[in-house]
Amino acid sequence: MIIRERIAAPSPTLSFEFFPPRTLEGRKALDATIAELATTEPDFVSVTYGASGSTRDSSREVVRGIAQGYAFPPLAHLTCVSASRTELTEIIEEFLAEGVRGFLALRGDPPQGEPDWRPHPDGLIYASQLVAFIREVARVYGLGPDEISIGVAAFPGIHADERWRVQGLEVLQAKQDAGADFAITQVFFDAHQYLDLVVDAQAAGITLPILPGIIPVLDSTKASRLEQMTGVVVPPSLLAELAAAPNDDAARSVGVAHAAALARAVLEAGAPGIHVYTFNQHRAALELVDALDLGRTGRRS
Ligand code: FAD
Q1: Cβ(254)–Cβ(299) under 8 Å?
Q2: Is residue 180 part of a domain?
Q3: Which of 3, 82, 151, 153 could serve as 102's disulfide partner, Cβ 3.0–4.6 Å?
Q4: Dihedral of the alpha carbons of 174, 51, 139, 178, in degrees to the nearest 10
Q5: Which of 105-114, 133-142, 286-295 has the lowest mean pLDDT?
Q6: Is-contact 277 28, C-beta < 8 A?
Q7: What are the distances in angstroms from CA 225 to CA 144, 231, 234?
Q8: pLDDT at 297
Q9: Domain count across the chain
Q10: Ligand 1 pocket, mutate which of 126, 194, 211 (most atoms under 8 A from CB)
């Protein structure tokens, strides 16, 4: 079953996100993390794609390792950043040749040190264009539209400003029209933000399933990194609880309990699954899975 079929199935999906390691030690640690989380039999796992050449190679290696070594499929993130159409074609074809059939099509964040996002002169500008581009490369490669799955990003919490809300929905609609099969959300900490996005999207005629992205926040350092990376503010009440925790284990319990409450709220309201941002660590993710009634429990080592 390919990823979009898994997401369309009635039982909620479970998936994890990893980022590409920069060092050999990081790679070994990530391999161990993936092996631990494999015990929960996820529906798929995704690997982010950076702006620099070295993390791109590392990302592709991790995706390749998952495609070859596990029963669940990888979802390869792909961005428009610093890539010509020719380069994008080569990367997509390489993934397809390795058996990868799932892509998360993103515009991407600008490379470090560049405040503004600037497209490659012979590249793509928007994620919706990348969706159509992947579909076309796959078609030329000989794959039918039902043989690959393409996901895109969606952003809860855009409701504060009506203009952003409408633009956000138009952009999501354009991604669906271009051939996206599902969306995964940016992190959020208020279930209503996700549920409002789903209701508004449906009212606007958007039918693709929207998977909530859930993150267990384990300490204030990771919280600030998350805020820097995403612009999403971690609730001060959660930060205060983490700060008051007497040790790392207690802090992890706090972060997992918050993530589990959020995941339960969106699953009970009909979310098609949960996508767990792992920060490449398995313990909190396994404890989160244990705390949810998804019919799976991970083996804890
Ligand atoms: P787009 O949909 O292209 O939107 C980018 C901007 O252009 C938005 O402001 C949008 O409003 C505007 N826009 C879009 N279409 C149009 C149009 N037709 N006309 C006018 N304006 C338009 N980043 C990485 O670098 N690597 C990753 O691996 C990665 N993984 C992610 C995974 C998830 C689940 C999420 C939610 C985000 C991820 N990101 C990643 C971050 C993402 O690339 C950034 O948030 C980026 O700023 C927006 O990406 P997008 O795909 O939504 O872009």
Answers
A1: no
A2: yes
A3: 3
A4: 0
A5: 105-114
A6: no
A7: 40, 10, 10
A8: 64
A9: 1
A10: 126
Which atom of ligand 1 lies at the shortest distance from residue 59's CA?
A: 28
The reply to whether 32 falls in a domain is yes
- Tokens, residue 31: 């391999």
| Stretch 25-53: mean pLDDT | 94
Q: What is the mean pLDDT of residues 275-279?
A: 97
Q: Locate 27 and state its tokens.
A: 């790679």
The CATH number of residue 194's host domain is 3.20.20.220
pTM value > 0.90: yes
Q: Tokens 């515009």 belong to which residue? A: 107
pLDDT tens per residue across span 221-257 = 989 899 988 989 999 999 999 999 999 999 999 999 9
For ligand 1, residues with CB inside 6 Å are: 48-49, 77, 79, 104, 106-109, 126-128, 153, 167, 171, 174, 184, 186, 213
* Residue 165 domain flag: yes
17, 36, 241, 287: the catalytic one is 17
CA distances in angstroms from 44 to 141, 237, 276, listed in the order given: 23, 32, 11
pLDDT at 117: 84
Find the domain containing 183 and state its range.
Answer: 3-291
25 flagged as catalytic: no
- Going from the Cα of 48 to the center of ligand 1, the distance in angstroms, rounded, reads 13
Amino acid type, 212: P
Query: Does 178 reside within a domain?
Result: yes
For residues 59 and 100, the answer to whether their CB atoms sit within 8 Å is no
State percent of the chain over pLDDT 70: 97
